[in-house]
Write a structure and sequence with these properties.
This protein is an alpha+beta fold. It has a single domain, classed as START domain (Alpha-D-Glucose-1,6-Bisphosphate, Chain A, domain 4). Helix content is 24%, strand content 42%. The chain is built from five helices and eight strands. Strands 1-2-8-7-6-5-4-3 form an eight-stranded antiparallel sheet.
Length: 161
């Protein structure tokens, strides 16, 4: 069982996913902390990610792109805002141009991922907070909800290796 629930809350401007994995917290943490593992699941299966810059520390910059089925590329960036290994990561996330520079540094979402023991496994809660209801609806219309669900479903395979 991977994704067990998702919730779009327009009033709170959040999109929340809860997933469970049959692996301990420190092992699940590695799917975030290791860019090669992150590449194997960040983005839906038809849009795999490539991480070109990965500074996994508070204030660190992350640059990546996802490659679509026709070879098209969609670039993104993160700024890591907080890390409490192996239980919590926070980051600002946005669209980037072909050079990896933010397209609009104010058009961001803020992600908070928490990992907690759940029996012999781990429960991962991912909350994306948006700057407005319009942004939340625009990102939903672009397929963010389904894309995140499909991406997270790939984590179980990464954990088995």
């Amino acid at each position: 069982m991977t994704v067990i629930s998702s919730n779009k809350d327009v009033e709170r401007l959040t999109l929340t996913f809860v997933a469970e994995f049959d692996a301990p917290v420190d092992r699940v943490w590695q799917v975030w902390a290791d860019p090669r593992k992150l590449e194997r699941w960040w983005g839906p299966p038809t849009w795999p990610a490539t991480f070109e810059r990965f500074e996994f520390e508070p204030g660190g910059q992350v640059r990546y792109y996802m490659t679509g089925p026709g070879g098209e590329k969609s670039h993104g960036w993160w700024t890591i805002t907080a890390i409490d290994a192996p239980h919590r990561i926070e980051f600002d996330d946005g669209f980037a141009d072909d050079n990896g520079d933010p397209v609009d540094p104010k058009d961001i979402t803020h992600g908070v991922v928490t990992l907690e023991p759940n029996g012999s496994g781990t429960r991962m809660t991912s909350v994306s907070t948006f700057i407005s209801a319009e942004q939340l609806e625009r990102m939903s219309a672009m397929g963010m909800e389904e894309g995140l669900r499909l991406a997270m479903e790939q984590i179980e395979t990464v954990l088995k290796d």
